[in-house]
Amino acid sequence: RNRTTKLANGVEMPKLGLGVWKVDSGAEVVNSVQWAIEAGYRAIDTAAVYKNEAGVGKGIAQSGIKREELFVTTKVWNSDQGYDQTLAAYEESLSKLNLDYVDLYLIHWPVEGKYKETWRALETLYEAGKVRAIGVSNFKEHHLEDLLADAKIAPMINQVELHPLLNQEPLRKFCAQHGIAVEAWSPLGQGKLLVRPELKAIGDKYGKTPAQVILRWDLQNNIFTIPKSVHKERIEQNAAIFDFELSAEDIATINDLNTNERFGPDPDHFDF
Length: 272
Ligand code: A2P
Prior knowledge:
Order of helices and strands: EEEHEHEHEHEHEHEHHEHH
Largest sheet: 8 strands, parallel
CATH topology: TIM Barrel
Helix content: 25-40%
Shape: globular
Structural class: alpha/beta
CATH superfamily: NADP-dependent oxidoreductase domain
Number of helices: 10
Strand order of the largest sheet: 3-4-5-6-7-8-9-10
Bound molecules: adenosine-2'-5'-diphosphate
């Protein structure tokens, strides 16, 4: 069971992680992180703006897992973009997480006029060995083209809203051509996709839920995925996706659900 994939720089990243957007910074996030690690998750995805990095760090510490067995992602927030600000924001995230490094540091949104300087800071952190991998989030093709024109190091990841209604096929193709891995946020469409009868019908064939069908579709498309849940049973359910395989026909059925509908903001019209 190959549960990790190599990024462009050779670092192994778990295909499945726990997302903690909108998870409360207290006991809720501490418990979720601990349950996830117990259920076999080896990646946690947080961000400075989620205001729960300290709780994530507490959950990690309480789980007793060895640091090197875990893959932790966090992100620099929009108001901290710029070279010096980003270097400082990274240190602040480390201190909140109570860690001496994170595995993956991302630019959270492509703030116009700022993201190139921010990227230079991420390159500095990477070259100094302070972070194992660097990437971006919510970048469209034109943002990536612009960034790549000046970057010394190409982003290893682009984390975007991605689910069956917004399958991001053109962006995935562009990323593949540039060695940039794709990661899905809100893979379950914030839970709104789980009532779709097409997904229920596919799941019934395998004894799996619609959530498991979507997450399996991510895996079979080489998309890193970070479903969020604060419920133990769901956290466990979302990890039970390595023991079945969707047929090519199922994959095609899920691909056909695409309508380019977003549940989150469009990166070109984000109120920064
Ligand atoms: P909860 O956290 O209360 O369990 P996404 O990752 O796409 O943003 O989706 C997260 C939403 O989907 C949350 O509201 C979460 O609710 C819900 N959710 C996550 N996993 C499952 C599941 N296996 N079954 C039903 N709902 C789920």
